[in-house]
UniProtKB/TrEMBL annotation:
The lineage of its organism: Bacteria, Bacillati, Actinomycetota, Actinomycetes, Micrococcales. InterPro entries: Beta-gal/glucu_dom_sf (IPR036156), Galactose-bd-like_sf (IPR008979), GH (IPR017853), Glyco_hydro_2 (IPR006101), Glyco_hydro_2_AS (IPR023232), Glyco_hydro_2_cat (IPR006103), Glyco_hydro_2_CS (IPR023230), Glyco_hydro_2_N (IPR006104). PANTHER family: BETA-GLUCURONIDASE. Residues 13-179 form the Glycosyl hydrolases family 2 sugar binding domain. One of its GO terms (molecular function) is beta-glucuronidase activity. Residues 586-606 are annotated as: Disordered. Belongs to the glycosyl hydrolase 2 family. This is Beta-glucuronidase. It is an enzyme of class 3 (hydrolase).
């Protein structure tokens, strides 16, 4: 699904702003047809934002059920004769949407876009009412999973992942117009021959035209200076780029492919697709980008901040990338869900490498019973995560790859974080999902993130993974505080994984750290301990050749549900929630850039 754009033939109207909002814990609004008129008893709510922290009220914060949003918009007069589409970049975790009195779409899954052709329902120049019933409930058939139970004070949501269940309309909403014959999809795949100086880039493209698809397609490829470097006729083909400038980590060089639908000399539609020419390959224990071994440095991140919750925010985006640059991170994982489109666009431009993850997190009842003391239940069973859940998961993989396939920054798909992976049931559940991801994208490796409860020798999914991704907390959740013993245990396990002859990325290692808490003896929770813990991990990684990456958990402190071992959230950040560096951030910066502080003595950017 292509993003809305303003081009020579297309126009967008953003619907971000303050909408009317009303909670509906019992689901009464559907029967009472709240969409059929102005939303009664509404309060203001910003879009995009999570609703949870906007209002200082625990009922809003912990709401379970529907949340109704409504706004009105005037359809631009100039859109007469065009195809008009209503698009939500996301609504967490599912939504039903109406235009005036007519339901126009339903969508399951909180982190991917959905849209509907509303041409027949609107009149250019007139106002329309747009209503969305956004539901935040998690169950065994949703991603991520959860359970809603009746409690003494109403319904209560529990879930099995370690971040707050923020909900609402987290990303932009648009009305947009395209011609009635329009480009509906583009796929680009890149390759190159030869070495620097005499390098020939190859850009295979496939353009899908909808509407009256009989019209011709023409493509133009422009370089970063706007010069046309290749052209093609027909809906698919391969363009050749002489002396191609590759996209590479740290060098986000982008070409732009303009896909035109033409009728003789007349331009019917035009869509602009950025293109980074690069290759990705796994060879033995190496992860190669453009044929060169790549070592991931960086973090697992979250879309998380005070007040806005999980809403996309450009100021935070640019600031976070500046901090990635400062600290010397070349990559991050979109733990634990697909991020806003803007994040990948910016990663493409900045040359930051991305591991793109679905929202399959918490599919592991062993973690719940082992660590959180919940009664042991089976993860994969007809009553819990079952065939229906797998179909939801498959759809999430389809939507992720369809949305993100053209980003050069994305080098690896992660189809799940820490699922149960030592049982036959997990193997049965996951085998077809790996096959699906590999069929949908033959150009990128596919993996999943392994949990400590499935150590080397027990995991039944590793054989399907092109890359081994490990989350390990030796010295924190096990061997707590005893870094010497932790180092021995960690190295021993990692040596086992290294024998599989696949590249290994450590996708999580970290220790909760309260900024400002210090001790001379490096006790857990202090800044000294976090630094010592990271040092220990780095010694282990540096001793094993198959390790091709280290991503600290987490970039910044983030909000979680209330638990006895979380102090106002998870504190494993290298930065605090408001992005102040802990001592560990300086340590990482030294390791990843070689630069020593004080960086505050003056600008050290080169
Ligand atoms: C994990 C999870 C992550 C948690 C982290 C922790 O393994 O993947 O979501 O936040 O551990 O801090 O416990």
């Amino acid at each position: 699904m292509l993003r809305p754009q303003d081009t020579a033939t297309r126009e967008r109207r953003s619907l971000t702003g303050i909408w009317d909002f009303r909670l509906d814990g019992t689901g009464a609004g559907h029967d009472a047809r709240w969409f059929a008129g102005p939303l009664a008893d509404a309060r203001p709510m910003p879009v995009p934002a999570s609703f949870n922290d906007i209002v200082p009220d625990v009922e809003v914060k912990n709401h379970v059920g529907d949340a109704w949003y409504q706004t009105s918009a005037r359809v631009p007069r100039g859109w007469a004769g065009e195809r008009i589409v209503l698009r939500f970049d996301s609504a967490t975790h599912r939504a039903v949407v109406w235009i005036n009195d007519t339901e126009v779409m339903r969508h399951e899954g909180g982190y991917t876009p959905f849209e509907a052709d509303v041409t027949e329902l609107v009149t250019p120049g007139d106002e329309v009412r747009i209503t969305a019933a956004v539901n935040n409930e998690l169950n065994f058939q949703s991603l991520p999973p959860g359970v809603v139970q009746e409690g003494p004070r109403g319904r209560k949501q529990t879930y099995f992942h370690d971040f707050f269940n923020y909900a609402g309309i987290h990303r932009p909403v648009y009305l947009y117009a395209t011609p009635t014959t329009y480009v509906s999809d583009i796929t680009v795949v890149t390759d190159f021959d030869g070495a620097a100086g005499a390098r020939t880039g190859k850009v295979s493209y496939d353009v899908v035209v909808s509407g009256d698809g009989s019209q011709d397609v023409r493509v133009l490829l422009r370089d970063a200076d706007g010069e046309v470097v290749a052209t093609g006729d027909g809906a698919s083909g391969e363009l050749t780029v002489q002396d191609a400038h590759l996209w590479a980590p740290g060098d986000g060089y982008l070409y732009e492919l303009e896909a035109q639908v033409v009728d003789g000399d007349a331009l019917v539609d035009s869509y602009l697709q950025t293109v980074g020419i690069r290759t990705v390959e796994v060879r033995g224990t190496q992860f190669l980008i453009n044929g060169e071994p790549f070592y991931f440095t960086g973090f697992g991140k979250h879309e998380d901040q005070a007040v806005r919750g999980k809403a996309h925010d450009d100021a935070m985006l640019v600031h976070d990338f500046e901090l990635l640059d400062w600290i010397g991170a070349n990559s991050f994982r979109t733990s634990h869900y697909p991020y806003a489109d803007e994040v990948y666009d910016y990663a493409d431009r900045q040359g930051i490498v991305v591991i793109d993850e679905t929202s399959a997190v918490g599919q592991n009842m062993g973690v719940m019973s082992g660590m959180m003391g919940m009664p042991a239940i089976e993860t994969f069973s007809p009553e819990t995560i079952n065939d229906e859940s797998r179909e939801v998961h498959a759809q999430a993989i389809r939507e992720l790859i369809a949305r993100d396939k053209n980003h050069p920054s994305i080098v690896l798909w992660s189809i799940a974080n820490e699922p149960e992976s030592a049982s036959d049931a997990s193997r049965e559940y996951f085998e077809p999902l790996f096959a699906l991801a590999k069929e949908l994208d033959t150009t990128r490796p596919v993996g999943f993130v392994n949990v400590m409860l499935s150590p080397f020798g027990t995991c039944k999914l590793a054989e399907f993974s092109d890359v081994i991704m490990l989350n390990r907390y030796y010295g924190w959740y096990v061997d707590t505080g005893d870094l010497e013993v932790a180092e021995e245990h960690w190295r021993a396990e990692l040596q086992g994984w290294a024998s599989l002859d696949k590249p290994i990325i450590i996708t999580e290692y970290g220790a909760d750290t309260v900024a400002g808490l210090h001790s001379t003896t490096a006790d857990p929770w202090t800044e000294e301990f976090q630094s010592a813990y990271l040092d220990m991990n780095h010694r282990v990684f540096d001793s094993i050749d198959a390790v091709v990456g280290e991503q600290v958990w987490n970039f910044a402190d983030f909000q979680t549900s209330q638990m006895v071992f979380r102090v106002d959230g998870n504190k494993k950040g290298a930065f605090t929630r408001d992005r102040r560096p802990k001592a560990a951030a300086h340590l990482l910066r030294k390791r990843w850039t070689g630069k020593s502080d004080p960086s505050w003595a003056g600008s050290d950017r080169d």
